[in-house]
Design brief:
Blueprint: H1 2-27, E1 29-31, H2 33-43, H3 45-67, E2 71-88, E3 93-112, E4 117-132, E5 137-154, H4 159-225, H5 231-266, E6 274-276, H6 289-299, H7 301-321, E7 327-340, E8 351-361, H8 369-435, H9 441-476, E9 478-479, E10 484-485
Parallel strand pairs: 1-6
Antiparallel strand pairs: 2-3, 3-4, 4-5, 5-7, 7-8, 9-10
Amino acid sequence: MKKTTTGSGRFCFLIFLLIFNVLSSFSQKGMTLEETLKVAENNSPIMKRTRLSLVRSQENLNAQNAALKSRFSLSVNPIGYSQNRAFNNLISKWNSIKTTESYGLFTVSQPIVFTDATVSLINKFGYNNSYSEYANSTSKGFNNDLSLNLSQPLFTYNRTKLQLKELQLALENTQLNYAIQLLSLERTVATSFYSVYQNQQSLEIARQAYENMQKSYEVSKNKVDAGLSAREEIFQAELNLASSKSDYENSMVSFENAKDEFKILIGMSLYDDFIVLPNIKVDTVQVDIAFAIDKGLENRMELRQQQINIETSEFDLIQTKALNEFKGNLDLSVGLFGDNEKFGNIYQNPTDNEGVSLSLTIPLWDWGEKKSRIKASEATIASSKISLEEEQNDIILGIRKIYRSLLNLQNQIEIARQNVINAQLTYDLNLEKYKNGDLTGMDLNIYQNQLSQKQLSYTNSLISYKLELLNLKIQTLYDFEKKQPVTPVMTLEK
């Protein structure tokens, strides 16, 4: 009676698994590696932050370009009143003045990128009502002051050009970082994707092993019931079946955990379910190591980032050399001023206004500050150049390692494939022996475990090869499977 209950429990468990798998097949969505990469690019927290950084750099450059266009401004002072009593040296007496005024100031300013100058057109229009105690008279009327001004820095670097170039390099660096993060995400997602697939395959292999062990148990039970085998065989068969069931359940737990971690990585809802649909078909890929290294040195964006660091350091050197520098500024102004009690006669008797001003800043002694800061900036540039050389060597070293690994993995794949064939044939032969009573259940379990291990090893070797091919693509920005260069996304879609 106890055996019947145990058999019913196993039967119910199998029915539950069958129903679970059928329902899961309807609710699960199959996802390829390319589809998961698209989800990760849009939803991954890392890519979201990188996109925001790209937006910030782009908008900073847009703002600077906008600042180089003509600026229009208008300031209005509707009413102003003042009453002052002051000593007038001209008449050697104290004098009280009451003034009421209203004016507006309109300005058009245009930076000149080529020379770092600023040209501005200024017009001040107002109304003035002033009373002087000394003259016991009131003066009122409209006035307008129109002037064209030029301010030109002399004997110094072009700050406008330098700032614009710095923002352009900052945007390029952010674009490169976005593309690098995208490639890094591809590697991370692919690794996690294949990890899910490994767990998925482990679950399938464990399921097959459990089904095989179920069949073996039935064979053993029938033989024991028929008196063809010793009673001890059914105990061993039950133990093997329980162990196989436990392995299957453990594989299911590992598979679900791997899927949840993968969902977090790509920014997918934890309540969505899916299965991975990988393409791990492996064809022999011929790789020319010299060609791969040339592509890596030609295309790797990290090298351009190092060059940007050098250029930025050189800009810092230019700014450092401007500390305590000899410099000047030339200001030119031409204008026309008119005033009259009547608005229409403001320029009835105009006055020309001209102005020229040259100012010089002459450093005398800075106690060696400038010299030391220049040396520090030069050391930074030298360090950046060393980093560039190191990056080049790291690229070459990385490509060589991947190349050697690919050659080794090709051999490992062939060995693993043959091991699976041999393990399957061995299991089939020993299963027949077991059915004929020439092999114990414990020995058959050993062959089943051996077959499962060989299947997993073959799957793992295929995945390792695919990941190494992906690493080579990332290291060289060249797809050796498709035989075409890789063009990473550099900007956001408008």
